[in-house]
Design a protein that fits this description.
The complex is a heterodimer of chains A (about 110) and B (about 140). Chain A is built from three helices and five strands, in the order E-E-H-E-E-H-E-H. In chain A, strands 1, 2, 3, 4 and 5 form a five-stranded mixed beta sheet that branches. Chain A has about 110 residues and is α/β, with parallel strands linked by helices. In chain B, strand 4 and strand 5 form a beta hairpin. Helix content of chain B is about 30%, strand content about 30%. Chain B is built from three helices and five strands. The chains are: A alpha/beta (about 110), B alpha+beta (about 140). Chains A and B meet through helix 2 and helix 3 of A and helix 1, helix 2 and helix 3 of B.
Chain lengths: ~110, ~140
């Protein structure tokens, strides 16, 4: 019930867009997608959450794993465009301080 | 007590497997169809907790079974009335050994272990008890006035 769209921008930033629900079934695939991108040399990644209908704690775990993977490679992982459910989950877990969501994909790596 | 016309009840019996999560999302959606006036923030809090409790049942209550054991199931009932949203789960897996009164959010860099802490933070009450060989979970979310 989920699809991951992956593209790399002209600035060399990987954009991963989970379309559907990010849950215990699909979260591990997100980790694989991030690992594959970093392995191919893309260590700055934006996860565009605009089309992610729902995220559970497994999805959060996959984002934290992705954050570590990118930082270990000298890059970073940033969230963009969270829906209200995702914003709520980030706040309830206090991970909004770590996975600080950005309002746009294009500006996610500005400042 | 609310009259029956203002109460929506839906229920499901499903295999205690990861891929049953989509059935539960569909069940939650059917609850909102029956009670369309539930506020978005209450829907979010409730569904988030319901999915986390199901994940806990699938991942922990049956973890000892290992590969090859099939046929484990769980029951879930959801209710919406004018003041609250309630979910009750029953399963015959292993007892839950977590004390919900002391459950806490793990550190920022943890990649797992947030499920019940998130469920507890999302709703007004999360409770567990074991009756014989059955685990019972209940979730209560008081609706915004």
């Amino acid at each position: 019930m989920i699809e991951f769209k992956v593209e790399t921008t002209s600035r060399g930033i990987g954009v991963v867009t989970p379309v559907g629900r990010l849950n215990m079934v699909s979260a591990r695939r997100l980790g694989e997608v991030v690992t594959e991108l970093v392995g191919a040399g893309t260590n700055r990644i934006v996860v565009d959450m605009a089309q992610t209908d729902f995220m559970d704690s497994s999805g959060l775990g996959a984002l934290i794993a992705g954050l570590k993977t990118t930082r270990q490679a000298g890059g970073d992982l940033r969230l963009a465009c969270p829906t209200e459910q995702i914003q709520t989950v980030l706040e309830l877990t206090n991970l909004n301080k770590v996975l600080r969501p950005r309002p746009t994909v294009e500006g996610a790596f500005d400042a | 007590m609310p009259d029956d016309a203002s109460v929506t009840r839906v229920s499901l019996e499903a295999a205690a497997r990861e891929d049953s999560v989509d059935l539960l999302h569909t069940l939650v959606a059917s609850l909102w169809e029956g009670s369309p006036d539930v506020a978005m923030i209450d829907r979010i809090r409730f569904e988030t907790a319901v999915i986390e409790v199901m994940a806990n049942i699938v991942e922990h209550a049956y973890a000892i079974d290992g590969e090859g054991v099939t046929g484990r199931r769980f029951d879930v009932s959801l209710l919406a009335d004018p003041t609250s949203l309630v979910a009750t789960f029953a399963d015959d897996g292993r007892p839950c050994e977590i004390d919900l009164s002391t459950v806490s959010m793990p550190g920022y860099d943890a990649e797992s272990g947030r499920g019940l802490a998130l469920a507890s933070a999302a709703v007004d009450d999360l409770a567990y008890h074991r009756d014989g060989v059955i685990n019972h979970w209940s979730i209560t979310c008081r609706r915004q006035p």
